[in-house]
Amino acid sequence: MESLDPILERLITVQRPKKALPLSTRLMWTALAALVYIIMTITPLWGIHRTAPTGAAASIFYNPLVSTIFGTTFGTWAQLGIGPIVVAGIIMEILQFSDLLPFDLNDKKDRLRFSAFQKLLALVMAAGETAATIATGTFGQLTPIEALAVFVQLLIATQIVILLDDMIAKGWGFGGSAINLIILLSITRTFFVDLFSWNMPTFPNINPADYPAMQLPLGFVPALAVAVYNTIHGISPGILDLLFRQVPPSIALPDVVSLAATLALAYIIVYIEQMHVNIPAAYTQYWGFRINIPLRFMYVSVIPIIFTAYSLILAEQIVAGVAALTGGISPALAVLLTAMTPARILTPDYIVLHILLYAALATVFAWLWGQIGGIGPDEYAKSLVQSGLHVPGFRQSERIMARVLKRPINTLILLSGMIAGTLAAIGDIFGVWGSGIGLILLVEIGLGYYTQILQEGLMEVYPGLKRVLSQ
User: Fold this and answer.
1) Considering only CA atoms, which of 6, 63, 2, 68 is closest in space to residue 439?
2) DSSP run (H or E) holding 355
3) 237: preceding bond cis by omega (within 30 degrees)
4) Helices and strands in the chain, H and E counts
């Protein structure tokens, strides 16, 4: 890797602030980062000829769910979103855990090289995805000049996102990463559309006159206003048509059922997120001083459900592609293909299979991420021992601490993955806004920001508290 040092040293980066910034200043920089990304989502790419994706790759990489998770907006400078950064980060974590990279993350210089190499990998992945997108005709037929212009624009856009992430991670912004911020913005945008969009819903090959659900505005608030007006004047569609708006076979529009499901599921997620499992521990240097180490009940949930959604979408497209080549699929496979799709389908076979698929895959991915993501009992035990903690009745030892933590942490990893997958699937079935996965991400990221703001605000009011906690 040392041969890449000249390249890594030339990557554009953000310097850390000379001193710790107050919370208000960091919130201002975070708001600026959000504004920059919002501008990127409405800045069109020069040189493209299509306003909607086409081609074989479009159904996978520009699936609405994938677009929401990765914060992508087709045809704009946010075309790639955070996809290259997220995928590069996961690849680096896997390679580092497998000892395939020669980085010692306990060494400051190696940590900097690891971070720089991850940025370089993100740029490489952005270049590869852009080239594939252009080659498959997703943007339409481009001249060489137009193709080069699109390629350069998306590389610059990815570099901007990397810098935004670097700025927040190094202490200028708030939240530790721009990744969470962009995911939050993307899901919030979906919620805003579902609430306030005045556009009329349109779908290919479907006549709005055949379905009252399509004769009301897309957003719930304007649809409610129109429905109330129509009811007062005895016109259809009215209030009753807003209770359950669905265009066959499974296109759910914002309605009373989906609103109630969104609020109910959000409450359940918030409640579960507040649950903890306490592990008794004691400080080695303060004899007799004991504390409880709170382990989150939802120990790991975000990464597994993102993997689950992406893998199901990919599997769905593979099965559909095979069916197109072979001229059809068996009835059993057709049922499985339908179960892979996030939709509001209230048939027993879909409900059972969709929940089982999500729960099983999320559990598997949670276990895998627990092994390679640096959140397993060995890593947790190491951090606790370094903090001067040990298990009462045992001597201070990473091995002993890891053995004590192994059972509860592994159990929480499996449970949190299964519960996250089940809740995401239930959200899809009831048509929650932003999808079940989107709602889980929204609540988790929102709670994380809220908790951090409270903690840092408290420490600014009581500076001595920060010194006590750091000890």
Assistant:
1) 68
2) helix 348-372
3) yes
4) 18, 5
Residue 223 corresponds to which tokens in the numbers above?
């649809």
Return the closest-CA partner of residue 354 out of 424, 266, 438. Answer: 424
Q: pLDDT (tens digit, 9 = 90+) per residue, 65-75?
A: 778 888 888 88
- Mean pLDDT of the residues in the chain: 84
Q: Which residue is associated with the tokens 């991400």?
A: 441
Extract the tokens encoding 334. 């057709």
Q: Please give the Cα distance from 417 to 413 (Å, whole number).
A: 6
Q: In what order do the strands lie in the sheet with 276-283?
A: 290-296, 276-283, 389-390
The pTM (predicted TM-score) of the whole model is: 0.86
The residue-averaged pLDDT of 311-340 equals: 74
Q: State phi, psi for 290 to the nearest 5 degrees.
A: -110, 150
Structure-token pair, residue 154: 């998306």
Lowest mean pLDDT among 48-52, 145-149, 170-174, 278-282: 48-52
Would you identify the CATH topology of the domain 265-470?
A: Preprotein translocase SecY subunit (1.10.3370)
CA 415 to chain centre: 19
Helix (H, G, I), strand (E, B) or coil at 91: helix
CA distance 238 to 229: 8
Beta bridge partners of 296: 276
Residue appearing with tokens 């699109």: 150
What are the percentages of helix, strand and coil residues in the chain, rounded to 5? Answer: 65, 5, 30
- DSSP secondary structure letters along 231-243: HHTT-SS-HHHHH
pLDDT exceeds 70 at position 289: no
- Residue 395: per-residue pLDDT: 67
> What span, in angstroms and rounded, lies between the C-alpha atoms of 442 and 355?
20
Token reading at 231 = 């009811």
pLDDT at 435: 87
249 preceded by cis ω (within 30°)? yes
Q: What CATH class is the domain 2-190?
A: mainly alpha
Please compute the mean of the pLDDT values over residues 280-284 and round it to a whole number: 72
Higher pLDDT, 466 or 415: 415
Q: Distance between alpha carbon 273 and the CA centroid of its chain, in Å?
A: 16
Q: How far apart are CA 171 and CA 28, in angstroms?
A: 12
Span 54-61, average pLDDT: 55
List pLDDT tens digits, range 122-143. Answer: 999 999 999 988 888 888 888 9
Residue 142 has, within 13 A of its CA and on its CB side, a CA count of 24
Q: How confident is the model at residue 373 (pLDDT cuts 50, 70, 90)?
A: confident
Looking at the chain, which residues constitute the CATH 1.10.3370.10 domain(s)? 2-190, 265-470
Query: What is the amino acid identity at position 158?
Result: T
Cis peptide bond N-terminal to 294, omega within 30: no
